[in-house]
Amino acid sequence: MADVAMDLVFGRIMSLLENEVSLLRGVRDEFSEMQLELKSMRAFLTDADRTKALNEGENAWVEAVRDTAYNVEDIIDEFMYHLNRPQVEGKFARFVDRIFRLPKNLWVRHQIATKMRKLLTIIKAMPERHHRYGIDRVEGSSSHDDQLVRKVGQESYLLSDDDVVGIDDSRDLLIGWLTDELQQRVVISVVGMGGSGKTTLVAQAYKSPTIKRHFDCCAWLAVSQTYDIDDLFRKMIKGFFEPIKDLIPSDLSTMSNEQLVKMLVDFLKQRRYILVLDDVWDIYLWREIKVSLPDGRHGSRILLTTRKEDVASFSYGAGCRVHPIRPLGNNEAWVLFCKIAFSRNPTNSCPSETLESIGRELVRKCDGLPLAIVALGGVMSSKQFEFEWNIVRNSLNWELSNNPGLEVVKSILLVSFNDLPYRLKQCFLYCCVFPEDFLIQQKRLIRLWMAEGFVEKISGLIPEEVAERYLMELVGRSMLQVIQRDPFGRPKQFKMHDIMRELALSTSEGEKFCNVYDGREDTIESGVHRLSIQRCVERTNLPADISRLRSFFVFIRDFAPSAPPEFRLLRVLDMEDAQIDQLPDGLENLFNLRYLNLKNTSVNKLPKSIERLRNLQTLNIKRTKVEELPSGIVKLQNLRYLIMWRWIVAADGASHYAFGLRVPSDISKLKNLQVLNYVKAEGDITRQVGNMTQLRSFGIDDVKGADVGDLCTSIQNMKLLHRLYVRLTYSEQVLPMDMLSSPPPDLHKLTLEGGLKNVPRWFRSLHNLTHLTLFLSRLREDPLSHIQDLSNLVELKFLCGAYEGQRLSFRTGFLKLELLQIDRCQQLNEIIIEKGVMPGLQNLQFFQCEALKMLPDGIQHLTRLRNLYLENVSPELVSCIRGEESVDRPKVQHIPTINHFHTTSSGRFLGESLS
Question: How far apart are CA 7 and CA 44, in angstroms?
Fold first, then answer.
């Protein structure tokens, strides 16, 4: 990981030298020389990363080089801070400012040059000083982790049936695939993160008597990251020829590549064979090895394990199947842990409730990862007392780095980390700023990566697209767990595996990349670069030295620092959900700030001075009390995301209302803005936004009927728009959206709030639409015929009287629909669902549809329906499915979850399960 800090700084210097030539007058030579020195330092740290064991002197050398890189980064940020301060307003004022500013800039350049020369002197003295103490280079075995991976694979192969838990179904599935009637050669991939039990599963299938009887010959190859193809061919020959060893030539070790391939092809072409390729890291192996694997149409199989989805899903020019490894369930994980931790107990049971409570917490942290469960069980098997178990529970991060019994877990998982390109290493480590089990939103993380400067510039792609590639790569390498995907299969919400997070924390803190304060320590370490406050003990003392801080996160509502922070070089300030009602003092001085998140706080006003944050990319004031943006917001030309709406809680405490904000009339000056949600339609804003053709997400509130024409024209200009929200002012009757003749072609999400005279005819052209919400539309005609052919529609919501007709007929289409929600459609008394319509529907919800006295006709055809939700519906509808003897009970037998909620006359909200 040591090269991460270095590469980030190296990249920033490169960018300065290439793009900021005019700013470097007087210091260019120093920056150029520093670039050369950093190049050598980066090479040194890369070598250190490949080395498993460093002695104390070598570790000190690595730390000194890394700290130097951070010092260079500080100098760069100081330099940019001083030279890019906003100029004063007014022609005469600017003239006077230039007169007095020139000497100031010369002084700044002189100071920066002096600091750089001093730092260069220190750097050049490093080799001599370390030579003096006998530390000339970093040595060690770079193959330690690779050897450990192979060793674990061998041990997994030797496990007996009694030693494994929770793989019976997967093993039987693999055996079925291996022995089915397909005669063509088939490649079967088992994919999962390091330590997930891939090798164990494959070994259990491979050793099965069924497999031994089915195939003529078999071979098992441990591949790993480093391999020699000729060596693999020789091992294949030895494996396949095992029953007839006399055929193995005595000169096998000296045979050429061509001879080895010919020997394998000649032997295998008339046989049904099975080959296991364990721990495959790239598709190039297949390109090299496939020439030796003939497809004689005898039903041969290749079975491979990999940590990478792109390897598993690669088209191997043959039949392909993929089996993703699933984590062990809670009960299975506990059984496996007990087998190891309490192996001395004949029943493998936990001896006390107290130890069981601690043990289950430890097992939960393993998150179903068999390798971690087994290793942790081994460590705990030697500990008999409660205080010993508590020590491990409270210091798992330290244990992973220092306990020999857990070395295998760290080494196996770090193989995946060390294989990452440096930019992905930064992006992965950054995820540990979020608390344990935190559900990370894709958009939030991408914007943070951009603010930190982790996202490289690639011609033809916007930064968001590059960052999304990074995210897909991390997911594809099993480094992050996807919790939810969008309709197009892209990760939308995910989390870090607990053990991976602990390792990331250990690495981040050791490299001074990031520190997390969770209340376990009395103080926060000084000199940190990224700080995440996740627990507060009374009043948290911030470290005295926070001048290096680049990112500051607060994940607790009652955070109150004991002293005002000095965050001059800060790039990220994320205080979502914190109990603050005003912005921190001195915010306007944070010239380097790229990301400001105040979501769900009580902040009620943005100061005029916010216009000085010229580098700001993201401003999130969603669900705050801010009503209006200051006019100077249009000076923030780097702003890409303006996420905002007021969040008002009604007197009953249950209802919430969102309202758009007043924005300056010249908001269209923000030419880089990608997201503008939500603005209040005042003045000629509906016409002005037509100039913002770069928008991808746009929401507007309080639209008057007279403004709809201008708004529709503006929307037609937004060719890149993916999301659109339009709400009519409550004093108007109809939202004449038919005036929009040509909607944005890539629109994915559409919400229209307000009366519609009829269903807009352009709905039929929204072929990329995934989410459609109609609110207070008061439609009388059945809208389904206009949207039934939208092939990508996943969610459909008719809310708050969106439809005033009596009947909805789902006759055809809706092939991808997963959620249907109908709310307060008071006249609706009949729903018809033809067989074959909505085949993928999973959630069906009805709210206050009191005229609906019976279930939708055809609900029995919705075979994938998992949840039926009823709230304040008619008693007749509920009674027809309550109890096993109810008249419509057979129609809902296939639905796992049926919940009914209703409000009583006294105002109580009660619920019952009808499943």
Answer: 12
What backbone phi and psi angles, to 5 degrees, belong to 872? 50, 50
* Helix (H) / strand (E) containing 167: none
> Considering only CA atoms, which of 296, 322, 304 is closest in space to residue 184?
296
Handedness of CA 515, 516, 520, 522 (dihedral sign): positive
Residue 485: give its domain's CATH number: 1.10.10.2260
Rounded CA-CA distance 92/840 in Å is 68
Residue 675 · residue 696 · CB < 8 Å: yes
Q: For residue 396, what are the domain limits? A: 330-405
Helix (H, G, I), strand (E, B) or coil at 673: coil
Residue 911 in tokens: 């619920």
**Dihedral angle of Cα 708, 713, 715, 718, to the nearest 10 degrees:** -160
What's the angle, vertex CA 549, arms to CA 545 and CA 554, rounded to 5?
Answer: 105
Q: Identify the CA nearest to 620 among candidates 648, 635, 601, 636.
A: 601
List, as one string, the DSSP characters of 311-336. Answer: HHT---SSEEEEEEPPPPPHHHHHHH
Q: How many residues does the chain have?
A: 915
Distance (Å, whole) CA 406 – CA 120: 41
Are residues 319 and 174 located together in one domain of the fold?
yes
Residues 302 and 438 in one domain: no
Residue 249: partners with Cβ closer than 8 Å, 6 or more residues away = 255, 263
The three-class DSSP label of residue 675 is strand
* CA separation for the pair 618, 643 (Å, rounded): 8
Tokens found for residue 679? 């603005």
Closest Cα partner for 434 from 286, 568, 289, 597?
597
User: What average pLDDT score do residues 833-841 get?
Assistant: 94
Supply 752's token pair. 């229209």
Q: Could you give the CA distance from residue 453 to residue 447 in angstroms, rounded to a whole number?
A: 10
Does residue 769 contact residue 743 with C-beta atoms inside 8 Å?
no
Question: In 219-272, which residue ranges form alpha helices assigned H by DSSP?
Answer: 229-240, 257-268
Same domain for 191 and 287, yes or no, is: yes
> What pLDDT, in 10s, does the model give residues 115-152?
777 777 777 776 665 554 444 554 444 445 556 555 55
Cβ–Cβ < 8 Å for 721, 715 = yes
Tell me the β-bridge partners of 191: 306, 324
| Total count of domains within the chain | 5
Pairing status of strand 656-659 against strand 641-649: antiparallel
* Cis before 869? omega within 30: no
Gyration radius of the chain over CA positions: 32
**pLDDT tens readout for residues 586-633:** 787 888 899 999 999 989 999 998 998 989 999 999 999 999 999 999
- Residue whose tokens read 């789902």: 810
Written as six digits, the tokens of 511 are 């490299």
164 touches 289 (CB < 8 A): no
Mean pLDDT (whole number) for 70-82:
72
